[in-house]
Amino acid sequence: MCRPAVVMAYRGVPRRLLPAIACLAALLGSPASAAAYDHQVSLDVSAGWGWAPALDAAPNNGPMAGLATTVGIDDAWAIGFNLGWAVHPPFTDATDPVFHVGIVGVEGLYYIDILEIVPFFGLGIDLLPTVNGSTWGLDFAAHARVSLDYLVSREVTIGIDVRPYILLTALSLDPVYITFQARVSFLFDY
Fold first, then answer.
1. With helix as H, strand as E and coil as C, how does the chain read?
2. What is the spatial distance between Cα 184 and Cα 92, in angstroms, rounded to a whole number?
3. pTM value?
C-alpha cells in the first residue's frame, strides 16, 4: 500500500536513481561526529585564583596566571601542557613573606563535544615549586581537571577551569591546592 505513495512522491525521477537519492539523503541527514579540537593545537592564556584550603594561616590564597597548550589527538582526546604562577600576599600581616606557587604539568583530556558548549575532563601530574620568603620547596602532585568551553569560533574559545591538586609530597602539611581560572584559547589546525 505504501509503495504507490512513494512512487508518486518521486514521479519524474528515474527509478534507478531512487536508491542513490535515498543514500545521499541519509548521509546528509545524519549527524556528523563531533570534533571541536580534532587535530588542533591551542595556545591558552588564563587568569584566576589559587587556594590552599588546609592552611589556616594567611597567605593561603591569591591571584594566579597561566599559559598552556593542548594538542588534539582525535575528536575526543587531547594532551595538555600547562605553566602557572600564583602569588599569595599576606592579607593580614604585612611582615609575613609573600608565598609563591608555581605549576608545571602535563595532562590527558577527554572532550564531550556538544556543538558550541564543550565540557571536558582530565587527569595530570605536576611539579609545584614554592617560594616562601627565602625558603624554596618543590612538591610532586597529581590533579584532576573539570573545564567548560564556549566555542566563539573554530579559532577562538573561552572557558573556565577548576583543578584540584593532591600534593603527594606534602600530604601531612598541605595536601590540597585548588585553582579556579578563566581562559581564552587560540586554536590552530595541524
1. CHHHHHHHHCCCCCHHHHHHHHHHHHHHHCCCCCCCCCCEEEEEEEEEEEECCCCCCCCCEEEEEEEEEEEECCCCEEEEEEEEEEEECCCCCCCCCCEEEEEEEEEEEEECCECCEEEEEEEEEEEEEEEECCEEEEEEEEEEEEEEEEECCCCEEEEEEEEEEEECCCCCCCCEEEEEEEEEEEEEEC
2. 33
3. 0.78
Cα–Cα dist 68/66, whole Å: 7
Residue 25: what are its φ and ψ, rounded to 5°?
A: -65, -40
- Per-residue b/e over 131-147, b at no fewer than 16 CB within 10 Å? eeeeeeeebebebebeb
User: How far is Cα 89 from Cα 58, in angstroms, rounded to an integer?
Assistant: 8
Q: Which amino acid makes up residue 19?
A: P
Q: pLDDT (tens digit, 9 = 90+) per residue, 74-122?
A: 889 999 999 999 999 887 777 778 889 999 999 999 999 777 899 999 9
Q: Which residue has 588564563 as its cell numbers? A: 46
For 28-63, write each residue's pLDDT tens digit. 554 444 556 788 999 999 999 999 888 766 678 999
